[in-house]
Amino acid sequence: MSTKELIKITLNLLVIYVVGGVLLALIYAYTSPIIFQHNEEEKKDALQKLIPEADKIEKLGDWHPHEKHAEYYAAKKDGQIMGYIVQTFAKGYSSYINILFAVNKDLIVQKVTILHQAETPGLGDEVATPSFIEQFKGKDIEHLKVKKEETTEYVQAITGATISSRAVTEDGIRNGDIFLEKALKGVSDPSTTGGMHEGDNPHGSH
Fold first, then answer.
1. Is 80 exceeded by the pLDDT of residue 58?
2. Distance of CA 194 to the CA centre of its chain
3. Are residues 61 and 43 in the same domain?
4. What was the pLDDT predicted at 190?
């Protein structure tokens, strides 16, 4: 192959690379606002479903679990606070799990919604199933802990998915509830939250 042919092939590849990059950038610029708007509408709908009797969901502020932007809210009816909603992120086995949970004025969990997760199919992804989520109702901060054995006092781990179970329960909801308690008391810089707990192995088996 001659030098001229090599240069021609190189230039053609360069043009394809540049054009492809420009097209990807244009597609991202067009779709990014649409995706953002869709996610916001999805979150707004989920917020209302957590405390459906509220006539107003009022944002109280922002916080950053695992350096991700999250928000917390007061749910009101006729101007009176009924409870609170916290968005939080938990570091799972293979993903960051985006969670919304509602508590009453005593900070006892009422409902939980998993907005997004990418845990192991058939194992960790069961953190989004009703059988796991419904365990949180009525739990206070002290009882937001995972147990491997059968329990109703605490949260029972999903078989084979202890890391994902603990992530949602302790790293996500418990830390979110602790943050909310501090924020409502006006504690300075209450947004610090931990990751996996001491002794956990994020690279180990479920």
1. yes
2. 14
3. no
4. 55
Give a yes or no: residue 93 inside a domain: yes
**pLDDT tens across 129-183, in order?**
999 999 999 999 999 999 999 999 999 999 999 999 999 999 999 999 999 999 9
Count of domains observed in the chain:
2
**Does residue 191 form part of some domain?**
no
CB atoms within 10 A of CB 93: 25
Do residues 63 and 46 both lie within one domain? no
The residue segments making up the domain with residue 39 are 1-50
The verdict on 173 and 86 lying in the same domain is: yes
178 in a structural domain? yes
Global confidence as pTM: 0.74
CA quadruple 72, 97, 136, 87: dihedral, nearest 10:
0
**Residues 76, 43, 139: CA angle, nearest 5 degrees:** 60
